[in-house]
Structure prediction request, 1045 residues.
Amino acid sequence: MLKLNAVSKVYRTDEVETTALHDINLEIADGEFTAIMGPSGCGKSTLLNILGTLDRPTSGEFWIGGQDVARHSERQLARVRRKHIGFIFQSFNLLEELSVRENVELSLLYRGVSSGERRRKVAAVLERMGIAHRADHRPSQLSGGQQQRVAVARALVCAPNVVLADEPTGNLDSHHGDEVMGLLKALNAEGATIVMVTHSADHAANARRIVNLFDGRIVAEHQQAA
Amino acid sequence: MFGHWLTMAWRVVKSDKAFTLITMLSLSVGAMAAVLIGSFLHEELNHERWLTDSDRILRVETTFARAGRPPIVTATTFPALKPALDARLPELAATSRLTLQWNTIERGEDRESYQVAFVDPEFFDLFKLPFVEGDAETALATPNSLVLSETAAKRFFGGESPIGEILVIERPFESVVTGVVRDLPNATHLLAPMIARLDNEAARANTPFDENWDSFSAAQLYAKASSPEHAARLVEELPSTVASIVAASTEIPDGVTFSFDATPIRAIHFSAPKSGDLKPRGDPVQLSLFAAIATVLLVVSGFNFVILSVARGAQRTREVGLRKAVGADRGVLMKQYFVESALFTLGGVLIGYAAAELAHPWFARLVGRDLELSTLRDPAFLATGVAVVAGLIVVIGAYPAVFLSSLRPASALRGRERASAAAPIITMSLVTVQFAAAIALTAAAIIMASQIHYIMNKPLGFEPADRFILHGVRRDGATTLARLETFKTRLRAHPAIRSVSATSVLPDWDLDDYGAFLLPGQTFDEGARSLFLSVDVDFLKNFEMPVVAGRDFDIARARDRYFYDHPTFDDPPEILSAVITRSALGAVGAETPEAAVGKVIDFDFGGGGFPLEIVGVIDNVNYRSLRHEVEPLVMVPMAHVSNVFTIHFDPARHGDAALAIEAVWNETYPDQLMSLDYVDQEMIAQYDDDRRLLRLALTFAFVAVAIACLGLYGLAAFSVQRRTKEVGVRKALGATTGQVTVLMLWRFAVPVVVANVIAWPAAFFAMRAWLGQFAYHVPLNVVPFAVASAAGLAVALAAVGGHALRAAATRPALALRVE
Prediction:
């Protein structure tokens, strides 16, 4: 379970203070599929970064798996990410220097998984994503849809219990976008908690719960039938 | 994981070609310079270490002191000390004397001048030189044995074995070749192209050496201890033991003291220069300078990696963000980037090392040394190299690793992470240091060049051009003068020859024969010191030294021709004629040249002398190198002690002159080999070290400038990329291309300008010390510094100008679309 208690995030640059998140209270149950919506600059990405422990709240508590990680050290946060979290980004964030296989393998590498097991797991997840035949290509040789499938594969290969997706369909045409949404739904059906930031009401409709953010505050929240 | 780092590093190398090219090129050039200089330093610092038992061998050296005079420190000692020392210290493993002598070596018609080392039969017990033929036990078994170096053996016998063959040393003395030793490496003070016994008939020193307590400059004396510990004890004890032996064996005049040193041979190369040294000493100042330059070049070349890694960091922020997102912590990323730095460094250094092997002969010419390529593969040298590279990896790898791994993941992922506030300061500081090195070296090179131009062109008071110098005039007592005169007369008859003169010392040799003019009542210590030069009566004419008062020497006058009539010192003259320089006027107590002429004044060498009549005064002569002040100089006709001829020839008939000289020489001196050189070239040769240093400074300045510009070029490329948007905004607001270009250029000009704050004082103090060695030097003014700074700025702007212009010329609409 992810739980935010009175979380605020303030960016300070010299004299100027910008409050990106304002007293957020949010609880996301295990296995839930949550969509976060709102206009540009409302704090969606900041919220997602905090949920992914890529950023720390300025104040408040963030409970994940029974511990408050808001004051964790960088090293501890890295450990939390390794244990719980997989990321999918709008711009894929694949490393151009590495092949598809090596990109996917990256998360396993930092978890100290043995090379034999890495090979097996990567092969399995690429197979599942339908891109096994592209394993030795570089990201730039793939279409956008294929790249995002590689990114999803990279998030899934460690079987995280939380998948955070930051506008995963933003750079895709509708056909590939639908495909990625299908993948996320399937994952959710297998038990993964999914938090997705999106602009698209259509894609948000896939989630069980929609959280609306405006000016750093949660302004609306509603559940919908699966 | 390590495999992944290697893969990643290799792919970064391949994908970012500009980065790879610039950093690798810089590092390899820096490493090449460091390896080359390092090999020179290594050779210098490891003298004698190659020699078996070099930690057990000592040389006995002598200091001779008289009250009121500077002591004479020699690398030699009394020859008779050897048997006395053997008797007193039987625990010594071996002792041997060594004295060098130039000899004409003949095999049939084949003749050549060679230096022969005359030694005691125990020589090879002391120095375990590697024998190629023959062996150490028997090589010096008989008095006429002769051991050759490989090169000398090849010279006279080609590929054939010389063992048992005869060579003539100083006709008619025949010696039998008994052994061949491998040529000695450079790192030794020993000189032994040929080795023979002291009791060889050809040894001129074969006055009974074992009883010679007269001359402490006659021979080197080496002693070998039984162990290194014994050697350490001997360093302490031997001086007093030797002093007591000497005191007991010979009568020491009043006011004279002898003291002795036992110098370990490994220490010889870097101890203070001594009279009788077999090899010029290493110059610690020059070596420190070289070491400093090597270090600066290596580090500065590594800076480009740091600068560009940080500048390029912008491109790798997403990578860092992503790696952190998928679970990497800071430590593991730091290791990754450190490994990457290490690989780059290693790659650059290895390329530099390979390049150094290729450039080695060129570098050897540059430093004017016969450097050995094998030094580059010497295990000790390589071990030092590994340590230096490890240090370098830490120096240049640490910051990029720390910097990249510290980026915050959330903003890094958006590619928005600005480098920490320190990053631009650090990059710009590194650029500043690079340009400081470049500007300082350039300024130094300019100053050196102008000083060398100055000393090459300064009027010296005599005319060295179109003159030959003929070495090797043999002094053989009574017949010396007759042969000199015959030679001169015959040669003068040739139309290509303008004049001939015989003298004892040529201008380029550091004349150090001093005496003192004694005004009435003065003792030697009170008298004014003056250099003393023995000449013949043609000397002034031959060198076109104009007489400003009085007259030139005149063979017709009794006081001028005294030694022509009495060519020994057995019958001292009453009064001799002398010509002095203006600088000696004070010494003879005269205000003007005219006042000096006609004066008769005592001249003393500290133990006797004769009265001189000043017959003429000439302008000052820089008889010694321009490192020295002009000194008072007195010239006296004493042709019978001449060593060299100087011959003024008609430059239009230069070849005829040389042929005539050879013909006359062979008639007059059939037993001597002729050695002909040009006076002006010998003059220039005394500044060889300085010119070499200049060539090195120029080369290294060029390297430093190139490295600094490469870095700046790369930095400009990266930061112009980053600032494209800024350019768009500025232009949208109405800035012109020119204004934007100036703005971009200014940013890169700042560190170059700041570099002067370091460069000027550094170059100033170094050059003040260097110029201080010369009594005559160019003034140290602001011009060379300003020129170096302007040149630095100009090349820097040229390096970044293209990028700045291109960025500034971008259409604003395009520029704004970036991101």
